[in-house]
Fold:
Amino acid sequence: MSLQKYLLLLYIGLTATPPCYGRTDHLSQSYSPHATRPLARAYILYARKVWREIYLNEKQNSPCFMRGKEISKIIIDGVKNGVLVPYTDDTLEAVMPQAQFLKSLQLSGEEGQTTPHEFFPREIATLRLVEHIIFNKITARQEYDIEAIQLIVPGRNNPPTHLDHTIATFKYKDVIDYFNKLPFESICWYNAANPAENLTWIDAFTLRLFGSRIVKVGNTEDATIDELYEEKPGDGKGLIASQKLAEELDVDMEGFLSEY
Structure:
């Protein structure tokens, strides 16, 4: 057999679609039904699901947390106005009823009783992103696709339990649609050095202008990084592991996979 004929048969074998036996070929479908940038599984060389927390009080993230224009306030207003749908968790399967959402906004008192006081937007100071890091075979580039965001009250703002409290979860593509209907001034990522270069929050997220910490990477135990690496709560080993993972996933992985 000639080399040319062998290579042709090899190419056909590698690119042929396997039999589906009556089922839809999963490789032709998007890797996630909630993707903002749908991509067929067949075009993905590598993928990891990552949970990151954006601490809005940090200076780098302050353009999302300007007084009166906090991203938490804008999202909550969207739910109250009936134009944004909240979900109970990051599976994005169960819609949170309006009454449950409003109760989730209320500060808990003694024995779990809620009080008339709603959390102020500046008390909802953590934004958790649920996203996929994927390496696209076609473009040979690493891409980030945010699937969901969660509004979280950090423990320091949540007496008497002082535990982190998740308000609700939102599909990021719903958030994009909602933000795109608002005036630019309402969703402005303010550039203090040069206001002529102000962007929208959507642009800033796409360009990865925010600072964050990786708190979980998809695993069979569904465990957080702190749970996997800390020997004692707060011993700092979780933070060190998070920093190493960020370097590995955000910096090293693209360069390594590009060689293929």
